[in-house]
Amino acid sequence: MKRGMLIILSGPSGVGKGTVREELFKDESLNLSYSISMTTRKPRPAETEGVDYFFVDEKTFVDKIAQGGLLEWARFVGNYYGTPKDNVDRLLDEGKNVVLEIEVQGALQVMKKCPDALTIFLVPPSLEELERRIRGRRTESEDIVKERLDKARKEIQTKDEYKYVVENDDVHLAKDKIAKIIREHKI
Ligand SMILES: Nc1ncnc2c1ncn2[C@@H]1O[C@H](COP(=O)(O)OP(=O)(O)OP(=O)(O)O)[C@@H](O)[C@H]1O
Ligand SMILES: Nc1nc2c(ncn2[C@@H]2O[C@H](COP(=O)(O)O)[C@@H](O)[C@H]2O)c(=O)[nH]1
């Protein structure tokens, strides 16, 4: 069986990675599978263990790093986030196109380890719109919103490290652009 493609969907917090990813996953012809990350962040009310994330304590996360069990990991605004390696390898072996929805530090690590990965950076139409989206989601405290926006300004400066940059103005247009990129990308 042909090994699947590794796809990194990155971009600042609140740009709409999760929203666009949900649209992409409705298209079964793309043969996508989602890599569920591990995090020390507390679950939001609508989040489910093992679906949105594997929610763990700091010791479990640090042990996982020490065991070499993460493909990449980063500290982002006070919490650890990382990609369990075994799961990604298994899904790729099964021929799935595996989506990592991750922030910039982790994406840069994967680019080094897996230069063939398809890397896509989602940009907002403007920083003002990004702020509206983060605030509109009502999941973060004021302090965290400010930290995430500060981080976003720096993250956007790295966009040229990615193979593709896609603006998320309209969710369906962004989904269509990314679907086309996935279909046409050759490893
Ligand atoms: N194109 C769009 N136009 C308007 N609102 C959008 C658009 N895309 C996403 N949103 C909204 O912006 C908010 C943030 O989206 P989402 O949670 O998908 O972002 P994210 O990049 O996955 O964030 P995080 O990295 O923090 O997980 C949500 O309320 C979502 O409904
Ligand atoms: N480097 C990694 N970043 C990840 C991973 N899983 C999610 N993320 C990114 O972290 C921020 C914050 O996420 P949130 O759920 O607290 O809003 C966001 O950019 C995510 O894409 C991961 O495994 N590694």
UniProtKB/TrEMBL annotation:
<feature type="domain" description="Guanylate kinase-like">
    <location>
        <begin position="4"/>
        <end position="183"/>
    </location>
</feature>
<keyword id="KW-0418">Kinase</keyword>
<dbReference type="InterPro" id="IPR008144">
    <property type="entry name" value="Guanylate_kin-like_dom"/>
</dbReference>
<dbReference type="InterPro" id="IPR008145">
    <property type="entry name" value="GK/Ca_channel_bsu"/>
</dbReference>
<comment type="function">
    <text>Essential for recycling GMP and indirectly, cGMP.</text>
</comment>
<protein>
    <recommendedName>
        <fullName>Guanylate kinase</fullName>
        <ecNumber>2.7.4.8</ecNumber>
    </recommendedName>
</protein>
<dbReference type="GO" id="GO:0005524">
    <property type="term" value="F:ATP binding"/>
</dbReference>
<dbReference type="GO" id="GO:0004385">
    <property type="term" value="F:GMP kinase activity"/>
</dbReference>
<keyword id="KW-0963">Cytoplasm</keyword>
<dbReference type="InterPro" id="IPR020590">
    <property type="entry name" value="Guanylate_kinase_CS"/>
</dbReference>
<dbReference type="Pfam" id="PF00625">
    <property type="entry name" value="Guanylate_kin"/>
</dbReference>
<dbReference type="GO" id="GO:0005829">
    <property type="term" value="C:cytosol"/>
</dbReference>
<keyword id="KW-0808">Transferase</keyword>
<keyword id="KW-0067">ATP-binding</keyword>
<dbReference type="InterPro" id="IPR027417">
    <property type="entry name" value="P-loop_NTPase"/>
</dbReference>
<keyword id="KW-0547">Nucleotide-binding</keyword>
<dbReference type="InterPro" id="IPR017665">
    <property type="entry name" value="Guanylate_kinase"/>
</dbReference>
<comment type="similarity">
    <text>Belongs to the guanylate kinase family.</text>
</comment>
<feature type="binding site">
    <location>
        <begin position="11"/>
        <end position="18"/>
    </location>
    <ligand>
        <name>ATP</name>
    </ligand>
</feature>
